[in-house]
Amino acid sequence: MKTTTAGYGGVATGPNGHAVRCAGILFLILVLSCSGKKEEAADQSAPGEKPASTETAPVIDVATAATVTGSARFQGTAPTMQVIDVTSEATCHAKAEAEPVYHENVVVNSNGTLSNVFVYVKEGLGGLKFPPPAEAVVFDQRSCRYRPHVFGIQVGQPLRILNSDEGVLHNIHAVSKVGNGFNFGMPKVMETTKQFTKPEVMLKVKCDVHGWMGAYAGVLDHPYYSVTGEDGTFKLAPLPPGQYVIEAWHEEYGSQTQTITVTPQEMKEVSFSFGPSS
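Now predict its structure.
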């Protein structure tokens, strides 16, 4: 058996007597192989994982932007907060001896305002697209409570879910009407990360193990939202000048809206009032 090989690009004569342009074919194979690897490398997202957003945030001129602030007032006599019976969960019951667990459906602050009111821009942003922040929203399960009770998050923003109760099985059941739902257990101190894919106001989270645990998420495709805290106030900024519909939501007293117009550099104050008659 005899094989005679020519130089690069030449003709080789194989044992079967046929002429083969081996060097040229080898070069072509290498080119095609490298090309295929480049194409494959361009899409290496993990299964079920959304590719990173390539959208850029709209440029908001802070020199002309407006600021909307306000408060959520409570009307009427503040109800007494009810202690939750957590005796069915021994670990949380022991903690509740030092830190009682209360229902958070109505939390009236010392200044007559309400906590846990979700306030956001409902209409007026037009076609502005806002990429999600890389920083995660932290959602914890601690002392048999969801913390925070009400929170806002953008579509595609990481939601870092923790179970900080050692030895306690918790469950995170996101009840969605638009396809944002999930349902899984966390049997020990651990964490995981989820994302919501569509706007939804409001999305309820419940625990199928501990019926008293509940929370609400306002999922938006923009960053103009706020949740009232211990002083009952909110802030939406920097808003481009224009007309907007602002909505305030409370789990017990429903939603209210106001239409406002803001001019360049304006400081606009908007207040909402909630109570049993609202």
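Residues 1-49 have pLDDT under 50 and may be disordered.
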